[in-house]
Amino acid sequence: MRRRCIRFESDTLRKFPRRRRYLIGVSGGRDSVALLHWLVDLGYRKLIVCHLDHQLRGRSSRADARFVKKLAAKYDVDLAMESADVRTLAKRNKMSIETAGRETRYKVFAKIAHKRRCGTIFLAHHADDLVETFLINLFRGSGSAGLAGMREVFHRRIDDVHLTIVRPLLDVWRDEINKYVRKHRLKFREDASNKNLTPLRNRVRQRIIPYIEKQLGRKIRMSVWRAARIAADEENWIDTQLRVPPNRDGHLNVRELRPLSVALQRRTILKWLRAQNVSEIGFEAIERVRSLLDPAAHIAKVNLAQDRHVRRRAGKLFINNL
Predict the structure, then answer these.
(1) Cβ atoms within 10 Å of 32's Cβ, excluding its own
(2) CA-CA distance, 164 to 120, in Å (whole number)?
(3) 273: three-class secondary structure by DSSP
(4) What residue segments make up the domains of the chain, in order of their start?
């Protein structure tokens, strides 16, 4: 990988002309503040700053929102702010705070995209985020689709909104962002929860990766980063090979799926579940759905996360809430 300062334009950004309007997710933290400054410096003037108050940190969360509001005014860009009680949503949907926060953010982004008629959003995920995501998915037993983790450009459909997610910093490391922030004397909000070791990502970052590097006697981040990028490129190619897309009514045709190889069955089901905004899609969930393809199977319904299920009826698979 060619290491470079993030002030230089990436190949990814060349696909997104500066004259057009884009959303950008800004939490107020170091990474998103650096991304906003960089894009404005490159000439992206029609940005819409999107900020979600997760209501998790009381006064600190409200202070983050005020900071982002001032930041948008400083750069003379539009602002879209939302709030959500993520803790209550997590409890109601029986998911972790981290998962609930992530799902809520994307729903908010989709809502703003629909309202502002702007379907592309820039996010500040960087190389260290990619490494951490790869390892988390590996430990969870994800296949190569999960190991691909974050991609520079990813298309996701949320609540009938087609959202293009762009991550132009995936080849930029945290220490490079730190240098950029110091060089430009950028102010940002420090999230105290980053020091909390309860979230898995924080443990991977602060404990697991340093421990592995100490035991192996060498740095692993670059090697893991390369593996993740290779997996992402292969995942993009495999997506083009899926020959059985979901029907227009959102169903899958069982008869068309059955002759496929197991690998393509799994990929098609994974892509379908993602399109239906199903969370926590792991190997077990995909295999449960795939079991419905067996003509000798007596079951016609399997459960998914968040009280949803897949049912087979009249030669089709479709998703319902319980």
Answers:
(1) 25
(2) 5
(3) helix
(4) 12-204, 242-321
**Helix axis angle, 283-290 to 262-275, nearest 10°:** 110
Closest by CA position to 132, among listed 97, 98, 158? 98
Q: pLDDT tens for residues 169-226?
A: 998 999 999 999 999 999 999 877 777 788 888 999 999 999 999 999 999 999 999 9
Q: How many CB atoms lie within 10 A of CB 264?
A: 16
Q: Cα–Cα distances in Å, from 187 out to 38, 59, 184, 198, 271?
A: 14, 19, 9, 27, 40
Instruction: Express each pLDDT in 283-304 by its tens digit.
Output: 888 899 999 999 888 888 898 8
Under 8 Å CB-to-CB from 237, ≥6 apart: which residues?
Answer: none
Q: Are 22 and 122 in contact (CB under 8 A)?
A: yes
CA distance 175 to 235: 28
Residue 25: which of 145, 111, 149 has the closest Cα?
111
Kindly give the residue spans of alpha helices, DSSP state H, lying in 26-143. 30-42, 59-75, 86-92, 97-116, 127-139
Q: How many CB atoms lie within 10 A of CB 233?
A: 12
User: Which CATH architecture best describes the domain 12-204?
Assistant: 3-Layer(aba) Sandwich (3.40)
What is the CA 237 to chain-centroid distance, rounded?
19
In 3-state terms, what secondary structure has residue 79? strand
- At 160, which helix (H) or strand (E)? none
CB 259 within 8 A of CB 243: no
Q: For the domain 242-321, what is the CATH code?
A: 1.20.59.20
Encoded tokens for 19: 């004259």
Give the up-direction half-sphere exposure of residue 196: CA atoms within 13 A in the CB hemisphere.
8
